[in-house]
Amino acid sequence: xxxxxxxxxxxxxxxxxxxxxxxxxxxxxxxxxxxxxxxxxxxxxxxxxxxxxxxxxxxxxxxxxxxxxxxxxxxxxxxxxxxxxxxxxxxxxxxxxxxxxxxxxxxxxxxxxxxxxxxxxxxxxxxxxxxxxxxxxxxxxxxxxxxxxxxxxxxxxxxxxxxxxxxxxxxxxxxxxxxxxxxxxxxxxxxxxxxxxxxxxxxxxxxxxxxxxxxxxxxxxxxxxxxxxxxxxxxxxxxxxxxxxxxxxxxxxxxxxxxxxxxxxxxxxxxxxxxxxxxxxxxxxxxxxxxxxxxxxxxxxxxxxxxxxxxxxxxxxxxxxxxxxxxxxxxxxxxxxxxxxxxxxxxxxxxxxxxxxxxxxxxxxxxxxxxxxxxxxxxxxxxxxx
Amino acid sequence: xxxxxxxxxxxxxxxxxxxxxxxxxxxxxxxxxxxxxxxxxxxxxxxxxxxxxxxxxxxxxxxxxxxxxxxxxxxxxxxxxxxxxxxxxxxxxxxxxxxxxxxxxxxxxxxxxxxxxxxxxxxxxxxxxxxxxxxxxxxxxxxxxxxxxxxxxxxxxxxxxxxxxxxxxxxxxxxxxxxxxxxxxxxxxxxxxxxxxxxxxxxxxxxxxxxxxxxxxxxxxxxxxxxxxxxxxxxxxxxxxxxxxxxxxxxxxxxxxxxxxxxxxxxxxxxxxxxxxxxxxxxxxxxxxxxxxxxxxxxxxxxxxxxxx
Lengths: 386, 309
Description:
The complex is a heterodimer of chains A (about 375) and B (about 300).
Chain A: E1 11-16, H1 17-27, E2 32-35, H2 42-51, E3 58-61, H3 65-77, E4 82-86, H4 88-104, E5 108-116, E6 122-126, H5 131-136, E7 145-147, H6 152-169, E8 172-178, H7 179-183, E9 185-190, H8 251-266, H9 269-272, E10 275-278, E11 285-288, H10 293-306, E12 311-316, E13 318-320, H11 324-331, E14 336-341, H12 347-355, E15 361-365, H13 374-385
Parallel strand pairs in A: 2-3, 2-4, 4-5, 5-8, 7-8, 11-12, 11-14, 14-15
Antiparallel strand pairs in A: 1-9, 5-6, 7-13, 10-12
Helix pairs in contact in A: 1-2, 1-6, 3-4, 10-13, 11-12
Chain B: H1 29-41, E1 45-49, H2 53-59, E2 70-72, H3 78-94, E3 104-110, H4 111-116, H5 119-128, E4 133-138, H6 178-183, E5 189-193, H7 198-210, E6 215-220, H8 224-227, H9 234-243, E7 250-253, E8 256-259, H10 269-273, H11 284-304
Parallel strand pairs in B: 1-2, 1-3, 3-4, 4-6, 5-6
Antiparallel strand pairs in B: 5-7, 7-8
Helix pairs in contact in B: 1-7, 3-5
C-alpha cells in the first residue's frame, strides 16, 4: 500500500528532527496523536497540533503521560494508527501501558526524545540512557522493537518504518531519538506518496461468530485485528488470555501466550533487522554505535583510517531486537570491539555477551549532556590495538 | 482564626525568603506572587515544588533564590512530597526531636502540575488531611516547556498545542475550576488570590497558614511571555482579570464562600483580552460568547456566597 498523498508534505525542507518526526507520522498514515508537553520532545507535538487538523487528523493534549499512553491504545483498537511523544520522565510514567500494549498486541508508536537522566536530569541536553528501559521498562516478559535515528532525515524515514513495524508485528515500537537529533536542523527530503510504502492494518478474514478468535496467530505468530463496528464481539484485557481473548489465568495459557509474544519478535528478528556497516571488510576494530553517536564515530573512523588503523563502524538502526547473529559473525574476525554510548554501559553489555570473550570489548561511556569527542573514542581504539 | 483586617503596607515583613537574582522573565507575576507568599510565611517554612518555571528559575546554581528548605522532586507529586514532609515533621515533633514551633509545609506547582498531572496527588493530600498549604500558581499554560495548553488555559487562548487558526479559536474548553474541586474535599481553607491585590493575598496566606489541616491557594499569575503582552502590564492585567470577572477573588472558610473583592459591575471583557497576544485572533462574536459565560460563572459564584459549598 502507498501513502495517502494528503499527509505527505512533498519537497525539500529544512527541519529539525522533532518536526521531521511529525511529518513522518503524517506520511505513515497516523491521524491521531495523544501527547503531553515535555522537553525536548515538545516540538513534535507542537507541530502535530498545527499540522494534524489540516489533514483531518486529531491531536489531543492529555492530562499526563499515563493518560496519553493508554488513550492511543483505545484509538488503535478503534482503528486508528497512533503515536505518543515524550521524553525520559514521561516514558517512566508510560511503562505500565507499554506492557499493556505488548500484552494486548496493540500497534502503537512511542517516541522518546531522550535526555540526560535519571529523574529530571538534563531536560535540554542529550542522553542515550533509556535503551534498556525501552527494552524492558515494564514488568513481565515481552519483546518490543526499538529504532534509533541519527538525523532529521531519518526521523522522517524511520518514523514511517516504526509505524509499519508496529502494524506488521502488532507491538509497541520505541522510536529512540535524543535531544541532539531532535533539535538538529538539516535538509529533509520528503518523497512523493507513491514512493512511500505503508503497511496496512492486519485485519481479520474470519467472519464474526460466537467462535471468533481474537488472538489466533498467523504463521508468523502475529494475530490479525478485528475491524471495529463490523459485528465482531471481542474482549481486550491485560490479564493472561486465551486465543479468544478472555482471561484464563493458569500456567499453561501463560506459557502459550507469553512465549508467542516473545517469539513473534525473536523468531522474526532477521526480518526486522536494519543495520548499517561502514568499512567493515578489513576492519580490525569494530566500533558499534547507534543514534547520534553513530555520527560522531564517523569522524573517529576517518581519523583512524588517516593514521592507517583499520577501523570500521557497525550501526544497528533497529537496536531491539539486537542484531545478535551479525555481532557473533563479526566477533569471529575482528580484533576488538569499541562501544561508545551516552550512558554507563547498556548496549555495550549486549555486545560483550555476544562477542563472548573472542575479542576484547571496550566501553567508551559518557554520562550525557554533550556528545563524545571523536578523539576520545580514537584514543580507546589506539589502546585496544596496542 | 485571628483577625487580619489591619493588614497594611507598613506591616509587610521586610525580610524576603524568595530573594532576587533568579531567572524569571521580566514582569513575571508568578515570581512576584512567590516572593509575596514567602515573605508572609517567613522562615519556619518548608517547600516542596513541582517541576515548572518556578523550579527552573529559582533553583539553578548559583542563582538559588530560596532561603528556606526547598525540595523539587518531579512534576506530578508536589502534594505527595509535602504530605511526606508534614508526616515526618509530625512524628519528629511527637518524639520531641523538634523544637516546639509551628513549621508551615508548602506544596507548590503551576497550573499544569496542579490541575493536570498533579491533581491525583493533590486530591490525596487534601483527603488525608495533612496540615499543609498547597499553592497553585496559575499562569494558564505550560510556560516552562514553551506555552502549551493546560486544563487551566482559558477558552480562546492560542497556545502552541492549541494554536488558533482557520480551524480553531485556540483553547476550546472552559478553564477547570480547581479551587471548587479542592473545596469539595471539605478542607478548612480554600482561596483564590492575585499579586495585583497584595493585601488580599497576604491576608489569605496568613489564614491558610493558620488553618489546622489542608489549605489551598490558587494564585492567578500573569505571564507576559506566555500571554504575549508587554511585561509592564503584568499588574494591570491582574487587576483587569478580577474586575472583568475572569479571575474572581474569594475564599471558602470551612465550606462557606465569601467574595473578598466584590465586583458588582463587571467591566467589559475586551479590556482584559485586548493587551494579550494570545487572544488577538478572537472575533467580536467569540468575545461576546466568552463574556456571557464569564458573567454566568461570576453570578454562580455570587449565588454561592455565604452558603455551604
